[in-house]
Amino acid sequence: MARKNAKSTKESPSNQQEISEEEQWRIINETGLLKQMKTSPPTARVEGLEGQTPFAEEILNAMLLIAPFTFLLVMMDIVVHQQYARKAGLNVIVERLVSALPILSIFIYYTNKHRRNRRAQFLFFAMSLVVGPRLVWVVNRAAWGAVMQQVRCATELQEIN
């Protein structure tokens, strides 16, 4: 008896008729199944979010830029220490990162967030015109002070000898 049921289920697929694709589309269109299904709009086209990115994506974009800029900062700090024949210890690098990383992160986040806003671009440009010369002055002053300190140490060593 079990064999008869197994044979009948095996034979049933062969007894079914195959419907052509055109006939399937005709039946779907006549029944209106496609019109009854609700289509949800893509997430990018939700009202009010056009041109805006979610907060998590903004953070991720900023972090993708913060990582290489932080590496560049650390590398340049090590190169400067090597230039003056000083060892760049881990505590010096960490101290530098603790002071610079928050400012660098905030700046990168806001420049990345407002890169299409003309007013923000103008504001950043004006800030760079003010801060840029100040940075050059601070760097030159610090370099001059370091050189003068090295000269003083060298002359003191010559006086001892």
Computed over alpha carbons, the radius of gyration is: 35 Å
Listing every helix as H and every strand as E from the N terminus to the C terminus, the arrangement reads HHHHHH
Structural class: mainly alpha
Q: What's the N-to-C terminus distance?
A: 115 Å
Number of strands: 0
Mean pLDDT across the residues is: 79
Task: Estimate the strand proportion.
Answer: under 5%
Count of DSSP-assigned helices: 6
Structure, explained:
- The chain has 161 residues and is mostly helical.
- It is built from 6 helices and no strands.
- The chain has helices at 2-15, 21-31, 33-36, 55-83, 90-113, 118-160.
- Helix 4 (55-83) packs antiparallel against helix 5 (90-113).
- The longest helix is centred in the C-terminal third of the chain and has 43 residues, at 118-160.
- The protein is elongated, with a radius of gyration of 35 Å.
Secondary structure topology:
Layout: H1 2-15, H2 21-31, H3 33-36, H4 55-83, H5 90-113, H6 118-160
Keywords: Membrane, Transmembrane, Transmembrane helix
Region (Disordered): 1-22
Protein name: DUF7719 domain-containing protein
